[in-house]
């Protein structure tokens, strides 16, 4: 397959954001649908939405990992309204079998992008390729100027990603720590949740810092050690 010359081929591909690294909790159905979308029987358009910090970007990256495992061509891009590239990035993008756009709401009000994305969508769908989109809001609430595009975005399967409960966050942090090769007790995790930003993205960053601090100090992750680390950060 000849790849489009216009595309930035070296997009940010995060090796640690696979389905195996995602703690699904109450979002198991979302994960299942995303995995199925990469097969011949799954939905070809999936729109996942929910507040920031719940793992939407992780899931889109995981779809690219899974596509790679299946020898499918894939493309991921995170949109930012303040730094939108030229809309011709979408030229020939339909040749990719799996396309993932993060923060699709960021194109709202940008008429060149809305029209280009509408045309890309139609070409991509005609080839029966998989399109996975994420946003903070449901597709019917995104203030798009192009009504036909809003209609298209609602054609597929829309899934809301749910926040993890406190119990699920504890289990997720323990699981993530094991994946990194160290242990943290439920009591230590509860201590963290009572004193630190409860946003999952922030917690994953903190977990990596704890891993490095534990190795450097040659200490286990105990509550006194956590208290010391958090006091140093503050």
How would you describe this structure to a colleague?
The protein has 234 residues and is of the alpha/beta class. The chain folds into two domains: 142 residues, 3-Layer(aba) Sandwich (Rossmann fold), CATH 3.40.50; 68 residues, Helicase, Ruva Protein, domain 3 (Orthogonal Bundle), CATH 1.10.8. Helix content is 43%, strand content 11%. The chain has eight helices and five strands, in the order αβαββαβαβαααα. It has a five-stranded parallel sheet, sandwiched between helices. Helix 3 links the parallel strand 3 and strand 4. Helix 5 crosses helix 6 and helix 5 crosses helix 7. It is elongated and about 60 Å long.
How many domain units? 2
Q: How much helix, percentage-wise, in residues?
A: 40-55%
For the record, the CATH architecture of the largest domain stands as: 3-Layer(aba) Sandwich
Class derived from helix and strand content: alpha/beta
Inertia-based shape:
elongated
Concise account of the structure shown:
The chain folds into 2 domains: 19-160, P-loop containing nucleotide triphosphate hydrolases (Rossmann fold); 166-233, Helicase, Ruva Protein, domain 3 (Orthogonal Bundle). Helices cover 43% and strands 11% of the residues. The chain is built from 8 helices and 5 strands.
Key features of this structure:
single chain; 234 residues; alpha/beta; Helicase, Ruva Protein, domain 3; 2 domains; 5-stranded parallel sheet; 11% strand
Secondary structure elements and their pairing?
Elements: H1 28-37, E1 45-49, H2 56-69, E2 74-78, E3 98-102, H3 111-126, E4 130-135, H4 147-153, E5 157-160, H5 166-180, H6 186-195, H7 200-217, H8 223-233
Parallel strand pairs: 1-4, 1-5, 2-3, 3-4
């Amino acid at each position: 397959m000849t790849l489009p010359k216009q595309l930035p081929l070296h997009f940010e591909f995060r090796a640690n954001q696979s389905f195996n690294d995602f703690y699904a909790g109450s979002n198991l159905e979302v994960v299942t649908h995303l995995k199925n979308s990469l097969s011949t029987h799954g939905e070809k358009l999936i729109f996942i939405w929910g507040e920031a910090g719940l793992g939407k970007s992780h899931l889109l990256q995981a779809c690219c990992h899974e596509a790679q495992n299946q020898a499918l061509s894939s493309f991921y891009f995170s949109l930012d309204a303040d730094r939108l590239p030229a809309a011709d990035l979408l030229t020939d993008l339909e040749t990719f079998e799996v396309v993932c756009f993060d923060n699709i709401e960021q194109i709202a009000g940008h008429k060149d992008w809305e029209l280009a994305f509408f045309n890309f969508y139609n070409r991509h769908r005609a080839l029966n390729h998989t399109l996975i989109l994420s946003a903070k809001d449901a597709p019917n609430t995104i203030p798009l100027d192009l009504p036909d595009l809003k209609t298209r975005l609602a054609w597929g399967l829309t899934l809301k990603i749910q926040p993890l409960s406190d119990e699920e966050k504890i289990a997720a942090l323990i699981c993530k720590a094991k994946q990194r090769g160290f242990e943290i007790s439920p009591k230590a995790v509860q201590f963290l949740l009572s004193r630190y930003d409860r946003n999952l993205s922030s917690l994953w960053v903190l977990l990596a810092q704890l891993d490095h601090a534990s190795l450097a100090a040659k200490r286990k992750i105990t509550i006194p050690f956590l208290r010391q680390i958090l006091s140093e950060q503050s």
